[in-house]
Amino acid sequence: MPKKQKAIFLDRDGTIIRHVDYLTKREEVRLLPGAARAISLFNERGFLVFVVTNQAVIARGLATPSEVEKINTHIVDRLKKRGATIHGVYYCPHHPENHPDVPGHAKKYRVECECRKPAPGMLRKAIKDFNIDARQSFMIGDALTDVVAGRRAKVKTILVKSGPGHTRLDQLYRHIEPDFEARHLLDAVKFTVEA
Prior knowledge:
Largest sheet: 6 strands, parallel
Distance between the termini: 21 Å
Low-confidence stretches: none
Strand order of the largest sheet: 3-2-1-4-5-6
Number of helices: 5
CATH class: Alpha Beta
CATH topology: Rossmann fold
CATH architecture: 3-Layer(aba) Sandwich
Radius of gyration: 16 Å
């Protein structure tokens, strides 16, 4: 049986890149200061690094899966040029709320699912795909939905203050506490050293 690996699961918008409401263009991508350095430190410490991101722009009909994948590839490539390796990107195209203005091609994504955070589906898929030891792994994001997804996947959680998500306190989860809080992704590295 191969040895289980440890992993860092990262939210995308507000954690790795500057948050933009409904990001649909590569030109809008801005890496947050220190994000590439943080990811390279995770790499050096033996963590696999994954992006797990809700992309409701697909369910809203604002972008296709192919367009979202191109943006994700662009982010991964930019990080790689700075010495930071992402081992996989998992995204959820769904949104549970139906809306009369959604174009026909997007209606199939307006469903309840197991992948949209706070559901843990993306993390669980990566854990299975890459033989991850959840007990040695972390979910890092700027929203309580990231923390809840991490808890449900049985990984440790870090809430960063680099995006707007931490200020949008979902009333359902206001009682949820992350294991750690950090100013930004680079600040979060210190909490993973003993993993």
